[in-house]
Specification:
The chain is mainly α and 107 residues long. It has a domain of 68 residues. The protein contains 4 helices and no strands. The N and C termini lie close together (9 Å).
């Protein structure tokens, strides 16, 4: 069974979130430091939510890969880069980053 990557650097997360930022609004949050360990329920919730995020990244990366490989952007865009920028508001490099993230997740 392939080992999935479960941790990313803050820069990697920022890049992933920025590339998915269409329709997302930043909010202010208060950081509360706590030495209290997570309850069993909180651990289960965290693991469930992490799996949800991992699946979403995997699905988005896989979809981008298929859109590119099958050239499904061609009736309206001259290149995959133009398509990514016009349709999703980010560059081909960001799409490639997401695709590479899924490859790393399944290693």
């Amino acid at each position: 069974m392939a080992k999935r990557r479960l941790e990313w650097t803050e820069d990697e997360l920022d890049e992933m979130l920025a590339s998915a930022g269409r329709g997302v609004e930043a909010i202010e949050v208060e950081v509360i430091q706590s030495s209290r360990p997570l309850s069993e329920e909180e651990v289960r919730d965290r693991e469930r939510l992490e799996r949800t995020v991992e699946r979403a990244f995997y699905q988005a990366g896989s979809a981008l890969q298929e859109l590119r490989d099958r050239r499904l952007y061609r009736d309206g865009y001259d290149s995959f880069e133009d398509y990514c920028r016009g349709r999703f508001g980010h560059s081909r490099q960001k799409a490639n980053y997401l695709e590479n993230s899924i490859k790393k997740m399944i290693q």
